[in-house]
Amino acid sequence: MVEQKGCHYCIEWKTDLGPIYPKTSEGQYAPLRTVQIKDAPPEGVDFARPVTFTPTFVLVDNGQELGRVEGYPGEDFFWGLLTMLLETHTDYPNQPQTN
To answer: Between the CA atoms of 53, 55, 61 and 63, what dihedral angle is there, to the nearest 10 degrees?
Structure first.
């Protein structure tokens, strides 16, 4: 998640979904890492293009961007967009079961 200080939609996402995200199957499959928009991408990560909106959720595998969700369209649309992104670019939901 690329964010910036004072971003209303970043705060809204963190309030609405931040606490539950790591408990969801999506959050367990694609753990969240937060970076500031003013900073360079994390070491070893290449974004396909610059991030210009916050929040932007960038799906990364082996350091390469697979896709992104730009902005926070609200809880209902966010989950649909995230699931579509994961299903399009990964083997989600066919991840190994851990019991």
So the answer is: 60
Tokens read off for 66: 């697979």
Confidence of residue 95 (pLDDT cuts 50, 70, 90): low
DSSP letter at 86 equals: H
Tokens, residue 68: 């992104």
CA nearest neighbour of 12 among 81, 74, 76: 74
Give the residues across from 59 on adjacent strands.
67
Quote the mean pLDDT of the chain. Answer: 94
Strand, helix or coil for residue 63: coil
Sign of CA dihedral 61, 63, 66, 68: positive
Show Cβ contacts of residue 64 under 8 Å, excluding neighbours closer than 6 positions. 46
19 falls in which pLDDT band (50, 70, 90)?
A: very high
